[in-house]
Structures are given as structure tokens and as C-alpha cells.
Structure to design on (364 residues):
């Protein structure tokens, strides 16, 4: 076993970011006598899976896969979907040994893929660089086991906890390196969501501006359908998918947005606002496997209070805005005592230019 080949498979898997949803990211490397004879990755939804892509690449190189070893980041599938089972292809190709990075929690696979490989005479070694391989698919693992999108709460703030000056000016809190990281996450997530207040105050476009990236579905949480019709997000809705989540049943109002290319999603209300858990269930049913929540403070509080957030990303800039009226990342009522606070686990710190990113998982 050579871990270099699995690291290469992880590297290849990343090439599918933003295009395979709601499928997992997977990379595969075929090896014979210490030499790579084929590589593949799941490039986009509906396309060849990584294993079959590697076999195809092997054939195009004029190589034979019979007797070769395969390094693959995720357990090979054993069911029919958009593509036929990869286990069949590997057995038919005569692969001798498969090194698997991570198991697949999909109930249609979940150990059955590995069992079929072994029954077909293929030696299997599991959990090779397991942590790195699992990290590829935090979104997929959450979605396939819960049916709900993985929700990231992201914000940028100063060292004194402000997301804007007292005037409301907020461009830019963080630097270029931090903003580039945000666009990479926008590319990876299936949807990006903000509250109507953010649209009214900041008039964002909510697009992905990284080279080779794709725009996520834009979602505005707008309980009363008051998003300005002349806002940039509404005016570009005919070109970039845009959804308004609302509990307003005024069909005349809805038609004004639909005429401009928006989709209206009528949701149950809770205290006069969109019921966020119900919204997440609806998005999951639409195969939206991930949501990047970018603001504002009231929506952030509601999402945390209602338990729909799984990960928090806080970008911290070495600046001090001051001001008792300057906005903070999370609004709402807040908690009455420190021991009621939402806590994070598995926190990580990363420097991005002059800024820092602290990321962690919400403890349930």
C-alpha cells in the first residue's frame, strides 16, 4: 500500500466540487507495480463515477486494468442510479486489490459494495487515509443520512465582534484571501441564503466569483414578500436561479417576482416568519444538499435557535469598528445565561492573509 496514491485520489476528487451535488465527491487511481495507469473522478452529476472514469482513462492510455490495484476515496457503489454499479465494472475488469478511503453511509451501499468486491475475488483494504477521505464528503454524508441540507452559517467580523460600522457600511470587513475562501464555499454549496433585510440593506448579488466556479441557487427568506423588485438579485433572477421562501399567500405579489424569473416556495409560518426547519425539509426534498447562510443577524439567530445550523464559519479581521449600535453577527433575543450558549466542537483555526477563519461543528 502506498498512501501517495490515495492522496492523489483525494486531490482528483476535489475537481468535482460544485458539480456533483447531491452525489459525493470521489477520486480513483489505478496502479500497477507502483505506476499510475489510470485516473478518474466524479466530474459532474450524471457523469461516470470515479472508478469507471479511471478504467476508461486506463484503456485510453493503452493499458490493461487486469491485475491492477485501485485506490478510491469512497466505497464503490453497488446499485443502479444515473450510472450502473461500479462494483460490477471492477470485478469485470479483473482488479486485484481495492484500497478504500471511507465507507459510504448511503443505505443502498453501506458495506454492501465492499462485500460484493470480496465475493468477486477482489482483496479490499478499508479506511486508508480515512479522515482525509471523509472530509471530502461532509455534505453528502449529512444529506444522505438525514435527508436535510448541511447548513453553514458564515460571517465576517472585526475583533470587537462587529459586522458593519454604525452607519451600516461593511465593505470590506475581511481581506481578499478571506473573500476568495468564501467564494470557494459558494461554489461547493448547492444554495446560498440570506434574509430580506440583507437584500434591502446591502443589495448583494450572491454569485460565485472564482475562476471556473458555478453560482449556487440563491434563496431569500422573505416572510411577507417585500424584497425590492429593483434589487440586483431579483433583476438577475432570469439568469441565475433564485428562490423566495415565504409564508405570504398573496398570489398577486408572488406573480410579480415570478414574472422576473423567481421561484416562490410557500412555507409554513412560525411567529409570522418562515418556519426554518420546514424550509430545510422542503429544500432536502428538492435535492438541495447544502446551504450557505450568509446573513443577516436575525436570520442567523433564528437558524441557530431552531437547530438547522451544522457548521459555523467566522472570519475575523484584525480591525476594531466600535459603536454600541454597530451590528453583530447574531441578533435576536439571545440566551439568558452563558450555560445556554450554542457551543462548537472540532474547531479549527486557519490564517487567510491578515484574517483568521475559525470553523467548528455545532454541538447538538
Amino acid at each position: 500500500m502506498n498512501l501517495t496514491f490515495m492522496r492523489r485520489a483525494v486531490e482528483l476528487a476535489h475537481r468535482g466540487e460544485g458539480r456533483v451535488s447531491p452525489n459525493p465527491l470521489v477520486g480513483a487511481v489505478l496502479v500497477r507495480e507502483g505506476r499510475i495507469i489510470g485516473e478518474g473522478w466524479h466530474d459532474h452529476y450524471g457523469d461516470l463515477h470515479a472508478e469507471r472514469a479511471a478504467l476508461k482513462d486506463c484503456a485510453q492510455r493503452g493499458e490493461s486494468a487486469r491485475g491492477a490495484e485501485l485506490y478510491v476515496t469512497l466505497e464503490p457503489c453497488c446499485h443502479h442510479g444515473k450510472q450502473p454499479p461500479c462494483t460490477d465494472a471492477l470485478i469485470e475488469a479483473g482488479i486485484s486489490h481495492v484500497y478504500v478511503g471511507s465507507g459510504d453511509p448511503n443505505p443502498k451501499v453501506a458495506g454492501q459494495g465492499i462485500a460484493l468486491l470480496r465475493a468477486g475475488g477482489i482483496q479490499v483494504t478499508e479506511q486508508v487515509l480515512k479522515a482525509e477521505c471523509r472530509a471530502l464528503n461532509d455534505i453528502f454524508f449529512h444529506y444522505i443520512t438525514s435527508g436535510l441540507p448541511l447548513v453553514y452559517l458564515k460571517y465576517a467580523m472585526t475583533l470587537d465582534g462587529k459586522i458593519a460600522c454604525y452607519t451600516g457600511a461593511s465593505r470590506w470587513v475581511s481581506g481578499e484571501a478571506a473573500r476568495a475562501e468564501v467564494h470557494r464555499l459558494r461554489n461547493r454549496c448547492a444554495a446560498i441564503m440570506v434574509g430580506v433585510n440583507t437584500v434591502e440593506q446591502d443589495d448583494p448579488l450572491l454569485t460565485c466569483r472564482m475562476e471556473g466556479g458555478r453560482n449556487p441557487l440563491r434563496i431569500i427568506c422573505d416572510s411577507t414578500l417585500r424584497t425590492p423588485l429593483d434589487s440586483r438579485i431579483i433583476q438577475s433572477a432570469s439568469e441565475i436561479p433564485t428562490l423566495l421562501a415565504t409564508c405570504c399567500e398573496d398570489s398577486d405579489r408572488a406573480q410579480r417576482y415570478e414574472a422576473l424569473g423567481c421561484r416562490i416556495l410557500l412555507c409554513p409560518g412560525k411567529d409570522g416568519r418562515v418556519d426554518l426547519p420546514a424550509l430545510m425539509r422542503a429544500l432536502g426534498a428538492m435535492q438541495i444538499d447544502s446551504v450557505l447562510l450568509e446573513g443577516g443577524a436575525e436570520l442567523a439567530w433564528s437558524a441557530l435557535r431552531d437547530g438547522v445550523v451544522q457548521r459555523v464559519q467566522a472570519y475575523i479581521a484584525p480591525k476594531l469598528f466600535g459603536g454600541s449600535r454597530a451590528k453583530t453577527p447574531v441578533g435576536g433575543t439571545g440566551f439568558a445565561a452563558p450555560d445556554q450558549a450554542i457551543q462548537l466542537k472540532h474547531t479549527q483555526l486557519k490564517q487567510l492573509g491578515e484574517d483568521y477563519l475559525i470553523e467548528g461543528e455545532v454541538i447538538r
Observations:
- The chain has twelve helices and 16 strands.
